Amino acid sequence: MPQWEQFTLPVEPGADTAGPLGASVDDVLARMRALDATLPAQDGVAVFNRVYLAVTREVDRRIDRGRFPDPRAATTLDVRFAQRYLDAVDPVPSDRRAPACWRPLLQFRRHPGVRPLQFALAGVNAHIGHDLALAVVDACHSLGCEPAELEDEFDRVGDLLVSLEERVREDLMPGPDLLQIADPLTHLLGAWSLERARDATWTAARALWALRRLPGVAQEFTERLDTAVGFAGRMMLTPL
Q1: Distance CA 8, CA 37 (A)
Q2: Other CB atoms closer than 10 Å to residue 41's CB: what's the count?
Q3: I want to staple 137 with a disulfide (CB 3.0 to 4.6 A). Which of 7, 99, 160, 216 is the partner?
């Protein structure tokens, strides 16, 4: 599997193993803006892309202002993280199959019975539950470091992602008069937590790093993670 080879094959410390060499936060922001310009506003991917674009801009601002203890590590993690999302939803090449975690959103992105809030949270679920764990390992290979050395950057990016969830709910949740206790969306929102997903992702990233010399076991772990996150995403996108 090509995406697996990015971080399981033995590499030299400091080797760049994922995404274009020299890619920057500005590069991934440009890709997000280009994607936004090509999609209808109500498209499910467009809904997620808008909120993710906002949080990536904020990461870029905080890096520029010295808010991260290691700007190079923060940039590498942020870029690797964003590239995994962009590569999953980019339609070129057309024969590339997206990871299982992104397939529900790609399948239901234009379903009239799925609400914008569901699209956004399904994207957050796929990106946090799957992409972030792999991005940590990608970044460790690129930087020649251990996951523990990225924990501060992971936590700070994670704090911004929590703000992403809050932004999603504020911008896309119906008003109190519309969101009633009997509304299925109320129960759907209560069944998933970004905080818990972030904690599980850090554990998954450390496990993947520990398994990097056992590629068969690591591949199975990754496939099961991908499938489980995709299953949760499919439930989030149940038409209401």
Answers
A1: 35
A2: 9
A3: 7
How many angstroms separate the CA atoms of 96 and 98, rounded? 6
Residue 23, pLDDT score: 82
Q: Given CA atoms 61, 67, 68, 69 in this order, what sign does their dihedral have?
A: positive
DSSP 196: H
Q: Is the dihedral of CA 89, 232, 79, 12 positive or negative?
A: negative
What pTM does this model have?
A: 0.85
Is the confidence at residue 11, as pLDDT, over 80?
no
Least confident span in 21-25, 135-139, 225-229: 21-25
Residue 119 to residue 20: CA distance in whole angstroms: 28
For residue 93, cis peptide bond before it (omega within 30 degrees of 0): yes
CB 48 within 8 A of CB 120: yes
Q: Residues 216, 237: contact at Cβ < 8 Å?
A: no
Q: Which run of H or of E encompasses 86?
A: helix 71-89
CA distance 30 to 14: 26
Question: What is the reported pLDDT for 16?
Answer: 40
By the 10 Å C-beta count (0-12 exposed, 13-18 middle, 19+ buried), 157 is classed as: buried
Q: How far apart are CA 137 and CA 208, in angstroms?
A: 7
